[in-house]
Amino acid sequence: MSAVGVLGVGQTPYVTRRADVTFPELVREGALLALDDAGITMDDVDAVVFPLAPDALIGVGNGERWCVEALGAAGKPFMRVNNGGATGMSAVIAAWTHVASGMFDVVLVAGGERVSESGSAQSVLNKMWDVGYERPIPLNTITMLALSAVRYMHAHGADEADFARVTVKNRRHAALNPLAHLREPVTVEDVLASRVLAWPIKLGDACPSSTGAAGAVLVSERYARAHGLRPAWIRGIGQNTETFWMGDRVGPRMLADHGDADALAVAFERAYAMAGVTDPAGQLDVAEIYAPFSSVELHVIEAAGLCGKGEAPARLAQGDFALGAKGTIVNPSGGVLCSNPIAVTGVARLAEATLQVQGRAGDRQVEGARTAVASAIGGDHQFYASLVLSADLEDIA
Amino acid sequence: MTRSEPAPPRVAVVSCVRDVVAREEGRSLEEMIFETSHRALAAAGLTAADVGGVVLSGNDQTDGRVISCMTSAGPAGGVGRDVTMIASSGEHALVYSWLRLRSGQGETVLVVGWGKPSESVSPEHAELVSAEPYVLRAVGMNDTIAAALQASRWAAPGAPPAADDVVAWPLTAADLPARADCVYAAVLAVESAVPAGASTGPAWIRGAGWSTDRYEPGARDPAAQAALHAALAHLDRGDDPVPAASWEAVEIAAPSEPAVAHAASALGLPAGTPVNASGSLRDAPAPAHVAGLARLLAAATTVSEGRAGVAAGIGFNGFAGQGATVMVFGRDAVSGGDAVSGRDTVAGRDAA
Amino acid sequence: MTSAVEPRFYTQTWDLSYRHALGDTTSRFLAGLAEQRILGRRCPSCERVIVPARSFCDRDHTATSDWVEVATAGVVEMFTIVHEAFRGLPDPPYALAYATLDGADTALVGYVRGLDLTDLPSAVASLAVGNRVRVAFSDTPTGTAADYWFEPA
User: Fold this and answer.
1) Do β-strands C56-57 and B310-317 pair in parallel, antiparallel, or remain unpaired?
2) Å from C54 to nearest chain A CA?
3) What is the pLDDT of residues A135-144, one digit of tens each?
4) H or E stretch at B236
5) What CATH class is the domain B203-351?
6) Within its chain, how far is the Cα of A335 from the centroid?
């Protein structure tokens, strides 16, 4: 099949609140940034994929339809993806699918998020759970990952300081990223002293609720060649899905542990196989991975094959994965821990990976980066999306 | 350096199953999805372990589930597989399934769309939240009112109410879609994976077009059904389009019967081409989110059961048909066999 | 030119109501709580006893085949102690855990009661992964999953 390129990406700054624009106007900002970066206009776009996770967070059902005028997309093929937190990257993969189908040469992914307008996001997110068994129990996206963190601690001997070091690294990175939401550097002591949300997750371990927009323009190889363009290239994609039931991810008969990210590892393996990545830690310069809580980043680093299971805390403690270190740099943007505009968080991972492999990431640039992996997670740690990006079409191995 | 671009594989709908109940109070939505998915896979000679990917579509406000793919991915056979939820409308999930196979992602896809409006105490209220909060929600916009506003553009000036069962002038209850609890599941396969010896033949996807118009009903002419015309234009750009003049049956989901009639009349179909042989909007009930998927699959079934050589499904989505999708199915995978199959099905069409 | 205005806000509430059909299997599980019984369903393919009872196994995409009553005691698999107030959710602090009950192959989620949650270190210590808990039942069952909880064994 023909290769698919990323011709342009755009992100607004991620902030707590935007009172100066409506939701469609916000989405338009991200779309225009992506189109400008690609050097094209909406007239050049053949189809649009819109990432939008829970409708209730923006307070409009099928809010994608509301944005058609603002995008200038009237009359174009248009569809929305909702894979929870993985939505943004699943939408990128859907756009990849549009191009790889041979039907479209230029596809725009554009969306936005304003969680701040929902007065009760975690109450909304409690409605994710099974109507019969789980809703009477106050599960939400924080508690579900606190449960995972406890298992990671138990299985691998990690402690709260190991989690805190993830935040310290990412805040240091985010301080170099003018788009990031949380940019204040913090210390391990600051994180450990922050208030407990759901033990072991503390405020310092948690992502913010971000408002912002992001977009990306994907193009076919024939379009790029015909116009003499040099996009970044999506070399591999991989998605996988785990059982919804967290109680099935523990115990002697489990297939994948809720404390690890084994099913995500399968998604990475699928993307690596397609991309020809055989030694992720040796071949990938950058990882922009979805980890909304500090504990999650540890097991995602391991699932991505950047180190062995349970080894991420020690590697992080010795300074690996941070800007300036040797080997793969993890979340040079500051990652989801510093900016989480839910619907487009996965688009942001692609955008950051693209900037990195093209050497356009400014102060957060990983020196000489040519290859990157990006990932996202949705549902209750259930929907997994990943992709491999490179600066050119040379063999990665 | 020129990289080869092999032709994308041909894709067919190889099984198609539905579960439609006026009010299903004995089974959960997830149980309906499990049973329907299992049946669709079995009808294609597959199990969940064999399927190359799963594409889902539901409307969270209808079902009262936030990110409803979470609880439905498992019953749809998605554990261990690539699952993508296309949330804009059920028919988009079918289109996306086709794109997935064309793009080389596996050999089969299970697509599942659903709506269980009986669980909503007030489905109209669930529709109301699709109105943007500043203006349309304040006037109480919902699918019925939007459909009536659209139909008012076609009503004769000063026409008196047609009957005493007017729901929203000019529409009567008989003009409007009925709701039911529905799950639709279908398996799509590339040519090399089409099962042999199935009781029904494959319905080859000959093309699809889809488009979405402006959101604000006041920013477009709802009577023009511009989304349909844009979708038809995209269909024409496909690599093997079948003109409407060759369609032998059409299934249309639309906001109202007048909208069905106007869409059908705009297609330029040969006289006598059956439209909605599977039932009127009221007789073939479906919540709006899956009505289009239901009609697209009804068209596929028309072909797979030998009642037409070429059939098309059309679905509208959004207030007053903001979006439209067209998918054309053929007994033959490519043009050339059409003339023969067209002749063959004349008798079938008369019989239907 | 129009003069500058302060951005305005428009408050909206989604008061959507639902009456969710739970199906026969979940209904029977919930009815069992009033009899102080925890019921699971066995998958004929992987032979796991799935608790709480589900009518199908998502691992094998197979309908479960028979009822299995499991013990009302088991082992903590994971837990959290919530200190943050979330609108629409209970007042903190409260503890949640998943526990695999004896005879079950999957874990059940529930509140953990009978702990002093104000002292976080001691609460965490008493809820360690691998610790035993027992299921307690409400004397006034509501027919929902709120009718049981865990207590340290």
Assistant:
1) unpaired
2) 10
3) 888 888 899 9
4) helix B226-236
5) alpha beta
6) 8
- In this prediction the ipTM stands at 0.97
CB contact under 8 A, B74 and C58: yes
Residue B285: pLDDT band with limits 50, 70, 90: very high
Q: What are the extents of the domains in chain B?
A: 203-351
| Chain C: partners with 3+ C-beta pairs within 8 Å | A, B
CB nearest C108 (choices: A247, A255, A259): A247
CA distance B98 to B13: 9
| Three-point CA angle A88, A89, A94, nearest 5° | 100
Residue of C nearest to B36 (CA): C61
Residues of C in contact with A59 (CB under 8 A): 12, 14
How many CB pairs lie under 8 A apart between chains B and C?
Answer: 68
Instruction: Render the burial of C105-116: b for 16+ CB within 10 Å, e for the rest.
Output: bbbbbbbbeebe
CATH for A4-119+209-220 is: 3.40.47.10
CA–CA separation, C111 vs C151, rounded Å? 9
pTM for this structure?
0.95
> Whose CA is closest to A58, among A341, A377, A353?
A341
The confidence band for B1, taking pLDDT boundaries of 50, 70 and 90, is: very low
C59 to chain B: nearest residue by CA?
B79
Q: How far is CA A339 from CA A90, A300, A351, C109, in A?
A: 18, 17, 13, 30
A342: closest CA of chain B, how far (Å): 12
Chain segment A265-295, per-residue pLDDT in tens: 999 999 999 999 999 999 999 999 999 999 9
Searching chain B, which residue's CA lies closest to the CA of residue A238?
B82
Per-residue pLDDT for C16 more than 90?
Answer: no
* Residue B166: both structure tokens together: 């007017």
Cα–Cα distance for residue pair C106/C100, rounded to 1 Å:
6
Q: With an 8 Å Cβ cutoff, are A93 and B70 in contact?
A: no
Q: What gap in Å lies between CA A189 and CA A167, rounded to an integer?
A: 11
Q: Which residues contact B274 (CB under 8 A, 6 or more apart)?
A: B248, B249, B250, B349, B352
Structural domains of chain C, with CATH: 23-152 (2.40.50.840)
User: What is d(CA A363, CA B75) in angstroms, rounded to the nearest whole number?
Assistant: 46
Would the CB atoms of A131 and B209 count as touching at under 8 Å?
no
CA distance C153 to C138: 17
A191, A208, B82, B117: CA torsion to nearest 10: 130
Are C19 and B119 in contact by the 8 Å Cβ rule? The answer is yes
